[in-house]
Structure formats: C-alpha cells, structure tokens
Amino acid sequence: MSRRGARAPAGSGADAEGQRGRGPGGGDARAGRGIFIPHRLPGALVRGTLRARPNRFLGIVELEDGATVEAHIADRGRLEEILFPGAEVWVVPAAGATRRTAWSLVCARCPPLAGAARGPLGCLDPAGANRLVGHLLEAGAIEGIPAFTALAREVRVGHSRFDFALALAGGGRLLLEVKSVAVAAGRAALFPDAPSLRAARHCRELAALARAGEAAAIVLVAQRADVDEIRPHPVDPDFAVALAEARDAGVRLRGVAFEVGLEGFRFAGMRPVVVGDEKGHA
What we know:
Elements: E1 36-38, E2 46-55, E3 58-63, E4 68-73, E5 88-93, E6 103-109, E7 121-123, H1 128-139, E8 148-157, E9 160-168, E10 173-181, E11 184-185, E12 188-191, H2 197-211, E13 215-222, E14 229-232, H3 237-249, E15 252-260, E16 264-271, E17 274-275, E18 278-279
Parallel strand pairs: 4-6, 10-13, 12-14, 13-15
Antiparallel strand pairs: 1-16, 2-3, 2-5, 3-4, 5-6, 6-7, 8-9, 9-10, 11-12, 15-16, 17-18
Helix pairs in contact: 2-3
C-alpha cells in the first residue's frame, strides 16, 4: 500500500528517526482532524441492556424491544468496570452462518471518570484498533512515526506476527504493534485489562529488534475519548516491566484516542504513554 502524504517538506530539518515535526521524522496529529472511520462490523448498532455475562466472551443482552439475545464479546479483558448487569450496550447482528451467537457486542457506555457527569461510549472491538491505526498512518497523523513509502500488514518476524511493517522513506523498515485499550481509572486508560503473556512478549521482541538496529513502535489505542494518558494496568506488572524495557531499548511508544459514536470513530488526538514516571510520547 502506498503512503499518502508521507513526503517531507523541503528544509524541514527533521532526521529519519522522527523526533519532531512532520518531515521525514514523523506525523502531525493535526493531520488527523476531521478523520471519520465507520465501525468495522457492518449494520446499525442496536441498543440494549446487559443482563448477564456467563463467561468472558458471552453477553446476555435485552434489546429495547424486549427480546433477549446472546452476543459475542470480542475483547479478551475482564471489563468488570464496563460490562456489569444493567450496563448500557450496543450490539449488531452477526454475519456468518457458522456463528454460535447471532449478535456481536460492539460498544458500551463507560462509567464516568473523575470530573465527568456522564461516561462516553467505548468500543469493545479490539480487532478494529489495527484498522484505526492504519487510517492514521495513511493520514500522517501519528506523531513521531517516520515517513514511509509502503505499508505491509500482519508481518511475520521470527516467531511473532506484528501488525504493520513500514518501508521507511530514509531506508530500512519500522515494525509497529497495536494494542487496544478499553478500561480506565482516574483519567488514565489502562492496558491490559487481564494478564497478557502475548503483549509482554511483543514488547520484549520489539525491544530485542530495536537493540539490533531495527526501528520499532507500539501504538496503544484508547477506544474512548475521556482519557488524558495511557498507562500499564496494575493487574499485569510483567507487562509494565516489558513496556519499560521496550522504551529503554528505543521502541517508540505512542498513544492515540478516539471519540466513539454509533456511526463510527473520530480521532481525538495523541495521548502520552506513561511508564513509571516517564511519558513515552516524544
């Protein structure tokens, strides 16, 4: 896929490692203003009330017309602060005759964070986070990501598969991994919501690649717009350690947030990624 808008302005002075500006050194969040991205799953969202959650991947939802349906929950997190009996949720009819459940749970009303009268919609479709980041990359809207000439998805390196590989305009490539974030406390989005060996492994593998001279990045996507920063969740201290190792090895840590609506997403800007007491956004 060709990179749109990746050409650097003459005389920008930014180097190929991308520490400032929009030239060869990176994107500009202002380029993402006005970006609207429809929901990944087709069909109109239907409002309902979560009545039960028999297991992590199944929700029993009462629709507004009184019908009770089973809905698949794609997010692997615990989501106890969001998906509780009585929670306001939105579901969409599922495609595919082989599905056990006829509906997919896409969004939920998040509890309000500090200082807010009402919580926003949050999207619980982690597979859609890659798609959101793809749009931002094409728009040049992720700060600190170097300009690139081509983009490949689902690239295998060693024993892992990373979400994106960017062919950099200055030569070489950048491997990029995306993580979706749904839960929050205070004004911080928190990842992961349950211990994730896979997420920690990705951090360490990217750290090893960065030490060997590869460019690498991790983009944490808050699929809600009411947060000021993104942090490791205390439920998984090993991930926090692995993320710090990645940062120290030179892996770029970037955070983005999206406002979620019934029709789709609007880019809400960059969010700092806080590891310990340091912010990984520069």
